[in-house]
Design goal:
15% of the residues lie in helices and 47% in strands. It has 419 residues and is mainly beta.
């Protein structure tokens, strides 16, 4: 009988005592409560995360329901000396910090100014020969910033605005200056010294490409090559000029644009037509058959960002987009793809956005239009007054714009166009 009692005693020693069981129950209850609170917090966190995702999605989508807006903050006339007073501006720009604007005048003066109040910052001069007179101006894609002046003696000068940053006393200061990518002297694009009536310029990976239409109806292609000495850092340029097929007799060039590869040239004539030139072989360039543009003569034409499509405005206010489309023979054609809501007057200027496929247009009745090419949307059409808007200087970050009217007055406006 002693052995069973001994085994039972040993077994009872292995079980926790009543006090130990009470402690274990308390610890288990505590763990249950902690786990319950943890699961509750995790669940709330998941629901909160989903709610924040929806809040973010709404914050991105709701602005799509809001149209673009342009609100004029101030209108002013730039300080002018005798030279500038008699020489209208042909182009206007605004740098990315939206502090400094620049106007390019017919006499070659580039006037930098405070964009907010119009106070003058600095004036610089585009080079030209003593006997040369301004005849036309062309600009490259906005991100490259090249501006070319064409003269009545066949010469061309190319400049580029630069903006240096400094931080005296921890305050940002933007200092503008003018650089000369092809040298500080104009170069002879037309050996016959005929006046350049129309001009196009584009910066390519191989160097700037220029196309000029002369007063005697010739088309010239200039391909510029630059080389920099790694030791002296001296830059030399060489220009090779080719003759392109002229337009048919009786037609005149009104607008020209060249793509960023320097392979294709689009020419608008005074007959409401577009010609596409294949420049892949400069010494044997091809001119394709013309296509008609509805809405009257082309009065403004610019490549949008990356030069994949063209925005075109006409004398009747029609605004449209055109693409370079291949046919079954792998040959490109300029093709009309979409129309936008027209302006009420003749389109005077088209300004592409720097980083999006949107663009602005202005007309001779004081209206502006904001368009987005990819979605074929007209974001805004607004009257800025009765005076024709001739030039648009759009900020690279789309937050502010400078509008230059026929009276050479500048309106600085705040822009909301995030989408």
């Amino acid at each position: 009988m002693s052995k069973p009692l001994s085994i039972a005693a040993k077994t009872s020693d292995l079980m926790p005592s009543a006090e130990q069981r009470t402690k274990l129950r308390r610890w288990r209850n505590l763990k249950d409560k902690i786990s319950g609170y943890g699961i509750m917090v995790a669940g709330i966190a998941v629901v909160g995360s989903l709610a924040l995702i929806f809040v973010y999605l709404f914050s991105e989508v709701i602005p799509l329901l809001r149209g673009a807006s342009v609100d004029v903050q101030k209108t002013y006339t730039l300080p002018a000396n005798e030279q500038i007073a008699s020489s209208p501006a042909e182009f206007i720009t605004l740098e990315r910090y939206e502090e400094i604007g620049a106007t390019y005048h017919q006499n070659g003066t580039v006037q930098f100014f405070n964009a907010l109040d119009g106070t003058e910052s600095i004036n610089q001069q585009v080079p030209k020969s003593a006997d040369a007179q301004f005849s036309t101006l062309a600009t490259s894609e906005s991100s490259h910033g090249l501006v070319a002046y064409g003269y009545n003696n066949g010469e061309v000068a190319v400049v580029k605005a630069q903006y240096d940053l400094s931080y005296p006393d921890d305050k940002r200061v933007v200092t503008p200056s003018l650089s000369f990518p092809l040298g500080e002297n104009p170069f002879q694009l037309d050996a016959n010294r005929a006046a350049i009536n129309a001009l196009a310029i584009q910066d390519t990976s191989n160097g700037p490409v220029l196309v000029a239409a002369t007063a005697d109806q010739r088309l010239l292609l200039g391909m510029v090559t630059t080389k920099t000495n790694p030791i002296t850092e001296e830059t030399t340029t060489s220009t090779e000029v080719f003759n392109l097929p002229s337009l048919p007799e009786g037609e005149k060039v009104t607008q020209m644009q060249v793509d960023d590869n320097g392979r294709y040239l689009v020419v608008a004539n005074d007959k409401s037509q577009l010609y596409l030139y294949n420049l892949s072989k400069p010494n044997a360039a091809e001119r394709y058959e013309p296509v008609s543009v509805e809405g009257g003569k082309v009065t403004a034409m610019r490549f949008l960002v990356s030069t994949g499509s063209l925005a075109i405005g006409t004398e009747q206010g029609r605004v449209s987009q055109w693409l370079m489309v291949r046919d079954k023979n792998n040959r490109y054609h300029v093709t009309h793809v979409r129309d936008f809501k027209p302006l009420s007057g003749a389109v005077t200027h088209i300004a592409p956005e720097y980083s999006r496929r949107g663009f602005w247009a202005a007309d001779d009745k004081g209206n502006i239009g904001i368009y987005y090419g990819t979605s074929a949307r007209t974001l805004l059409i607004k009257s800025m007054g009765a005076t024709p808007i001739e030039k648009i200087g759009l900020s690279p970050i789309n937050g502010r714009v400078l509008l230059l009217d026929k009276d050479q007055k500048i309106s600085v406006a705040k822009v909301w166009n995030e989408h």
